[in-house]
Design brief:
With about 55 residues, the protein is mainly beta. It has one domain. It has one helix and two strands. A hairpin with a 2-residue loop joins strand 1 and strand 2. The longest helix is centred in the last third of the chain and has 7 residues. It is globular. The mean pLDDT is about 80.
């Protein structure tokens, strides 16, 4: 069962596109991680997708 899905998503903050064309999907029971440099948009992507952030 698909839980979270983003298709060709763009996020604009203060007149500047910070994410463009982002797509992914997660299924029930999957664990995923986003890897990237500081400031690359990991948290913005996660928050925009409506996912739950759990620090473990």
């Amino acid at each position: 069962m698909q839980v979270t899905s983003l298709q060709n998503t763009t996020v604009n903050l203060v007149g500047q596109d910070v994410l463009t064309g982002v797509s992914f999907a997660t299924n029930s029971g999957e664990r995923i991680g986003l890897i990237g440099a500081n400031g690359s948009g990991k948290t913005t992507t996660w928050n925009h997708g409506g996912a739950t952030y759990t620090r473990g």
